[in-house]
Amino acid sequence: MKTKLLFILRLIVAIILIQTLRFKFTAHPDSVYIFEQVGLEPIGRIGIGILELIAGILLLIPKTVWIGATLTLGLIGGAIMMHLTQLGIEVKNDGGVLFITAVVTFILSATILFFHRKDIPILKL
Fold this sequence. Notes:
Elements: H1 2-19, H2 21-25, H3 29-37, H4 43-60, H5 65-87, H6 97-115
């Protein structure tokens, strides 16, 4: 049961990460706006998109789940900080959907990492 639930959580986070890539990689105006506001357009938008793609894939591979969850925590933690310091909770009248999605993704990734903490090599010392 726990294994199925964890797989569903991994799948949800991977889908969230991967579905946002179409906005980043096609230079959607909303994505461009966000990255311009934080001074990372276009290199940051594309680079973060690539890292999110890698994190999404790593979350789906059993041996690399902990790496994907850790990478996701870093990426989404950065997104949350940008919302709190530069963008605001609501971006372009989205009702806070991007921010809420980031928080949910962060919490799910932290949960996944917690349950896969035994797989982290440095903790096995």
